[in-house]
Amino acid sequence: MRYEEIQGDIRAGRAARTLPAWAGRVLEDAAAGRSPVAAVRHPLGFLCLPVERSGDLGVCLHIWTPEVRPVPSTTSPVHCHSWDLLSFVLYGTVRNVRMDVLEGPGTAAEGAGQVFEVVSSGDVDELRATGRAVRYRPGPSATHRTGESYTLPAGVFHSTLIEDGLDAATVALGRQTPGGGDLSLGPLDVPTHRVRRARCDPGETVRALRRSAHRIAAARPGPAGAAAPPGEPPSSGPHGCRHRSARR
Predict the structure, then answer these.
(1) How far apart are the C-alpha atoms of 160 and 79, rounded to whole Å?
(2) Cα dihedral: 79, 167, 4, 246 (round 10)
(3) Which of 183, 188, 191, 162 is nearest to 110 (CA)?
(4) What is the CA 98 to chain-centroid distance, rounded?
(5) Which portions of the sequence form the region Disordered (predicted)?
(6) How far lies 201's CA from each of 27, 206, 214, 225, 238, in Å?
(7) Which among 15, 46, 37 has a CA at the least distance from the CA of 161?
(8) Spatial separation of the C-alpha atoms in residues 165 and 146, rounded to whole Å
(9) How does 207-217 read in b/e, with b if 16+ C-beta sit within 10 Å?
(10) What pLDDT does residue 38 have?
(11) What is the pLDDT of residues 103-152, one digit of tens each?
């Protein structure tokens, strides 16, 4: 399935019938080495499987799993995208907290920080300290559960939390917007710096993908969710991973 077809299914209310089976096949093919798509370790705490990149459009599977330990962020979890996001929750509970961001310096108690511009080139992400001082605090939040979809416009600062456990996955659709940028909020005293990407151990990635495929099957109603698929390995808990930074 490609961007337009997935978008159509979400908007027409068909996604719960079509996307879990499709996503399960994508994950199983990637885990078995039958797909050229490789999982990318994201500093915001999830694995990203980039399924489609076509001009201004993109389709990814985002997977939060205890199989791979989160990578420490060099700025903060608060960020905004250069693209409009449409996501469908395959399993788990995802909460997006929008941030109220005010221009100008402030105190630590006021959530003072600065804006970083994130520019990626090859295996390196450059986080450019802009010197633009801001104050930020949590604003409205929205919770999205299995089978639900949500949108986030480009340029909206937010953080994403996983509730009711450590597992969740979404189908994420992105449409690039003209003139937008990928931004992150971080401490005032952190200068411009670069983070080099590194891959997770292949075995850990395979375990994470198979765990996610199992969770998708278990979340589907009826016989498909009654039991784990053959060969599902038991969870081995959090595992270490060499850092891989990818901001988009």
Answers:
(1) 9
(2) 40
(3) 188
(4) 16
(5) 217-248
(6) 17, 9, 20, 29, 13
(7) 46
(8) 13
(9) bbbbbbbbbbb
(10) 84
(11) 988 777 778 899 999 998 866 889 999 999 999 999 999 999 999 999 99
The mean of the pLDDT values for the chain is 86
The token duo for 169 is 């996955």
Q: How far apart are CA 159 and CA 95, in angstroms?
A: 8
Q: Which of 3, 7, 81 is nearest to 42 (CA)?
A: 81
State residue 123 phi and psi, 5-degree precision: -95, 10
CB 46 within 8 A of CB 64: yes
* Rounded distance between C-alpha atoms, residue 131 and residue 116, angstroms: 8
Q: Map residue 229 onto helix, strand or coil.
A: coil
Indicate the DSSP class of residue 29.
H
Q: Range with the lowest mean pLDDT among 18-27, 69-78, 176-185?
A: 69-78
pTM (predicted TM-score): 0.85
Are residues 87 and 150 in contact, defined by beta-carbon separation less than 8 angstroms? yes
Which residue's structure tokens are 């499987």?
A: 49
- Beta strands, E only, the chain: 40-41, 47-54, 57-64, 79-80, 83-91, 93-103, 112-121, 124-144, 149-152, 158-163, 168-176, 183-186, 193-196
DSSP-based three-state secondary structure for 227: coil
**Angle, helix 202-219 to helix 15-31, in steps of 10 degrees:** 160
Candidates 84, 80, 85, 78; CA nearest to 62 is 85
Share above pLDDT 90 across residues of the chain, in percent, rounded to a whole number: 64
